[in-house]
Amino acid sequence: MVNDGDGPVYYVISDLHMGGDEQLGEIDFLDELLDFLGRLETVDEDAELLINGDAFGLWEFTDIDGLAKFDVLTERYPALFDQLRATGESIPITLLPGNHDHELSAYDEYVERLAEYNVDLVQSESITRPVGGRTIWFEHGHQQDSNNRFEDFGNPYETPLGYYYNSLVTSRAGQLSRRGRYNWLKDVQAVTPTERVPRWLVSKYFYREMSPLLRYAVIPFLLLFNFSVILAVLAGLDVAGIWTMPVETADAIFAQIGLVGEAVHFILVVTAAVTGVLLLAAIPLYLILRDVGKTVDRFGVFETDLTVDPAEPYEEAAREVFEEHPKTAVFCYGHTHRPTMTEVGDRLIINTGTWLKRLHRRDVIAGVLPPVFYPSYQLCVVRISSEPDGVAVEYEEIHKADPTVEELTLTERLLTLGRKPTAELPGRSVVSDEIPASVSESGE
């Protein structure tokens, strides 16, 4: 069958992560969210707003338990809950729990409390909605993540690995963030994959916390490190009598430059000497670390990776849903914070992204300086509707001011040549609304 274009329209957002200890309580996108919810009050269509998991950061509250967390949320963000109540009077608002707000599924009191603000909390891991002659499958996506999966959904005492990371690392970062020279530590929740956290910490220490005098003193040495490696190798060949370095020629060139040449010459000599020592020490150190690594692998100490493939498990899950429920046109999830649209035959897999800040790694132009993590926002809403041609899916970008100038130092921008993130949201796609005759006859 081909739908005539009439029917409900769904607006989908996810991964807002609102709430948490101390600095995690700041919502950078609150104004944009209020504006979006306000717009939904005036839509002239049969619309529904679906919040597809992780609306709240309940895991990130470590000093309070149970419904007391919800009390903090309503007290901290009165304008948000007032707007939810107002928007909910115009269109239905449906909230599906994610892993960070899994407690919503554990206590029926949350259903009653959210209903006071016209939000329908569905205590389920997935829901479906009709669109034209097809259906949409919604799930947050943590079900496909071994670190955040709940074997007993709705059990308030079940704590997967992700819970401990957020309660011990993310929440602690929110409590300590204000102590830095700049309020940056709270952004640890924006670092993905998790394995990048150590490099991110080194980067922020170097560019934000290190004494400026020390930082600017070592930058020339670190910038010239690669060149110094070559000099150290050539010096070694010179000592071994294999190759003779043109020392006199180089000295003459530096002498012509004057004081700047003498400074560069001094830096190169010192850096080459230090590099030579490091190279000599690196050989036995590498052999030792490799042997330790083999021993660790034999004992299987680290058998669980913190990072889950951002696409593969969700594609497998979607294919299973498409096979078991042939009318399903769209598989919609969040969790990984990557807004994507993937075609699987005549179906679509879509990820609704996140409203949190995102960090993009950029390597420096030379040397061994720490990488720079550029901040950006990709606030987006996914709109799913029925049209004469089929089921239409499109992304709407919610404009948010660029945080680069405010959050990155001039040094970081210079060392990366200002390479800002250029990620774009997926465009628009239409899934055919035609249902195979065998499926229609079976009533699937």
From TrEMBL:
Spans through the membrane: 213-243, 263-289
Source superkingdom: Archaea
Species of origin: Natrarchaeobius chitinivorans
Cited SUPFAM superfamilies: Metallo-dependent phosphatases
Sequence ranges assigned to domain Calcineurin-like phosphoesterase in this UniProt record: 11-187
Record key words, sorted: Cell inner membrane, Cell membrane, Manganese, Membrane, Metal-binding, Transmembrane, Transmembrane helix
This protein's record includes keyword Transmembrane helix: yes
GO MF terms, alphabetically ordered: metal ion binding; UDP-2,3-diacylglucosamine hydrolase activity
Signal peptide: none
Keyword Glycosyltransferase found: no
Protein name per Swiss-Prot or TrEMBL: Phosphoesterase
GO CC, one annotated term: membrane
Gene Ontology biological process terms, A to Z: lipid A biosynthetic process
